[in-house]
Amino acid sequence: MASTLLAGKTALVTGSTSGIGLGMARALAAEGANIVFNGFGDAAEIDKLQADVAREFQIKTAYHNADMSKPAEIEAMMAFAADKFGGVDVLVNNAGIQYVAKVEDFPVEKWDAIIAINLTSAFHTTRLALPGMRAKNWGRIINLASVHGLVGSEQKSAYVAAKHGLLGLTKVTALETATTGITVNAICPGWVLTPLVQKQVDARAAKDGLSNEDAKRALLADKQPSGEFVTPEELGAMAVFLCSDAARQVRGATWNMDGGWVAQ
């Protein structure tokens, strides 16, 4: 029998057409939530994804192609979710991009784009979701930060700055909703084998003349003591826990799932 933890509720997951976001969306759909997908990709593939998830979990799905660097498009997406499903009960801020370069070489437009998509978009979705959540006195906001919200890495100034900022936003929003039925928390994954990370694996394999498997092992050995990638399914299960009554007093937490990365 399907779980009904989130039956009748709606989850909007940004950047959910692949990777971590898709894992989150599927986990929430499995608990009975209707899903608003967002992200880029081939239109026919996104249509199929929507239909497959709706059929598999017997829920309703919708899709909005908002560019998360553009406030007006984010506003349109949140209005679309309200019109389609009566609002957003579970907001997962997952959309993110990456670029690596030393600070003095970092292209200004790349810095601006990373801050806009990885940090500012979460401010916009949150401010627009909160009034509806307050009206119902129930809501869950889950920000996908990163271990880079807790520690730094060379050549990732914009990403690290954005993710540290996202943890700050998480804490403040949690404090402002502390006496309500709304909780706000962040999950901080280590290496997850998403399309974004696969690019880094490929670059390492090419640079060091390694096979893809050896490049994965080398990448993990640098930072992640478990020697294993965190999976989107594991992150989805954490999101489900944060939506449950058991997590009612988990507020403003930064929960790292990183194979031991920040324990070192």
Structure overview:
The protein is α/β, with parallel strands linked by helices. It folds into two domains: 10-191 and 230-263, 3-Layer(aba) Sandwich (Rossmann fold); 193-229, no CATH class. The protein has eight helices and seven strands; from the N terminus they run E-H-E-H-E-H-E-H-E-H-E-H-H-H-E. A seven-stranded parallel beta sheet has the order 3-2-1-4-5-6-7, sandwiched between helices. Helix 1 links the parallel strand 1 (10-13) and strand 2 (34-38). The radius of gyration is 18 Å and the shape is globular. The chain starts with 9 loop residues before the first strand and ends in a 7-residue tail after the last strand.
Tell me the layout of helices and strands.
Elements: E1 10-13, H1 19-30, E2 34-38, H2 43-57, E3 61-64, H3 71-85, E4 90-93, H4 108-136, E5 139-144, H5 157-176, E6 182-189, H6 195-208, H7 212-223, H8 232-243, E7 254-257
Parallel strand pairs: 1-2, 1-4, 2-3, 4-5, 5-6, 6-7
CATH architecture of the largest domain: 3-Layer(aba) Sandwich
The number of helices is: 8
How many strands, what sense, and barrel or not for the largest sheet? 7 strands, parallel
- The low-confidence parts are none
Mean pLDDT: 96
Observed structural traits:
single chain, 264 residues, alpha/beta, Rossmann fold, 2 domains, 7-stranded parallel beta sheet, 8 helices, 7 strands, globular
In short:
With 264 residues, the protein is an alpha/beta fold.
